[in-house]
Design a protein that fits this description.
Length: 354
């Protein structure tokens, strides 16, 4: 028994027990994953609806895509299952409006890797989960950790509402960037997180190393940093060693290392790029390969204790394996967990500071 876990019935068991019609809200990869679990568990799907702008006569996996208003006209009482990620306030507000009118569940399906995050999964990994909880530096981190795990089990968005922290507050209170940072950005995308950092340092820094494996994103990144001194962009994936890896390019941030891809990308380790020099901040958002990126920065983390910003939401095991790995590499860290505005529990990150 883990003291901070209150939810024991998984969202899937709740849906299995439902007598009301169940409608999925959204199309795309998230809906496909949820529909796959529905089939596996024998959960009946009554239909699909999407935001009005996305309907226009669409069908998805053999289902006509309705508007919410059409579903409400057809059925008096039904259950809504959210199947997409929302990170903007306007969309989050709309989801809350739906939750006020209908029973809403948001299943947690891993971005990368397999398996489901259930109470049974937590019991199986109880010792590690408790170790992370006990190692967190402040009470608020413990509350965030507890709420995120309970949300991942039951799919109730109220667990996220009370532990959502603005990004600016995290920078001010935990990262506290100064004007002499050496910043390593793993998963640099188009330079958006470099831009964030520079807002807090008034554009000052000692050096910036930015890795972005996707060619289109890298082109945008290169354009953004063009003309900036002491900025070193790499069209490469972050990894535990210098090598080459198969890589699947997708739209936006979702490009990732993929064994099924024929495309090959250069991969670099942080320790290799820095060449024994220090880093003061390292950010990792590398689509489920944070563990490999951490090992690639192991010497830097152990010797220099840079402040860390690490995604915890791509794989089920990230929520406990990554904090424990950081604590093993350098026991001197203070560990924090924060969740930024997002439904489901994406943008749940580990922050580590000396």
């Amino acid at each position: 028994m883990i003291s901070f876990i209150k939810e024991k019935q998984s969202v899937w068991d709740k849906l299995k027990a439902e007598k009301r019609p169940i409608f999925i809200y959204g199309m795309g990869d998230g809906a496909l994953k949820i529909m796959s679990v529905f089939r596996e568990k024998g959960i009946t799907l009554s239909g699909i609806f999407a935001s009005d702008d996305f309907v226009r006569g669409h069908s998805f996996e053999g289902y006509k895509v309705h508007k919410l208003s059409e579903v409400e006209e057809m059925v008096d009482d039904f259950v809504v299952v959210l199947a997409f990620a929302a990170g903007y306030q306007s969309i989050v507000d709309k989801i809350h409006e739906i939750a006020e009118k209908h029973t809403l569940y948001v299943p947690d399906v891993p971005v990368t890797g397999g398996g489901l995050f259930t109470y049974e999964y937590c019991i199986k990994n109880a010792e590690k989960l408790q170790q992370v909880y006990d190692s967190l530096y402040d009470d608020y981190s413990k509350k965030v950790y507890s709420n995120i795990i309970n949300f991942k089990i039951c799919g109730d968005i109220s667990y996220l509402d009370s532990v959502t922290t603005p990004k600016a507050e995290i920078y001010r209170e935990i990262i506290k960037p100064n004007m002499g940072e050496t910043y390593v950005d793993l998963g640099a995308y188009n330079g958006d997180t470099i831009r964030e950092l520079l807002e807090f340092t008034r554009g000052r820094y000692a050096g910036i190393y930015a890795l972005e494996p996707d060619k289109k994103n890298y082109k945008k990144l290169s354009k953004f940093v063009d003309g900036m001194k002491y900025v070193y962009p790499y069209n490469a994936a972050a990894w535990c060693v210098d090598t080459e890896l198969p890589f699947a390019a997708k739209a936006g941030r979702q490009s990732a290392i993929s064994a099924s891809s024929e495309s090959i990308i250069t991969a670099r380790s942080v320790d290799s790029i820095l060449g024994r020099k220090a880093a003061t901040i390292i950010k990792m958002d590398v689509e489920g390969f944070e563990r490999e990126a951490i090992w690639g920065a192991a010497q830097t983390i152990a010797h220099y204790t840079p402040k860390l910003m690490i995604s915890l939401y791509h794989r089920n095991e990230d929520i406990f394996e990554l904090p424990l790995l950081i604590k093993m590499l350098n026991p001197n860290y203070k560990l924090y967990i924060r969740h930024q505005l997002y439904i489901p529990a994406w943008e749940t990150n580990l922050y580590a500071a000396p």
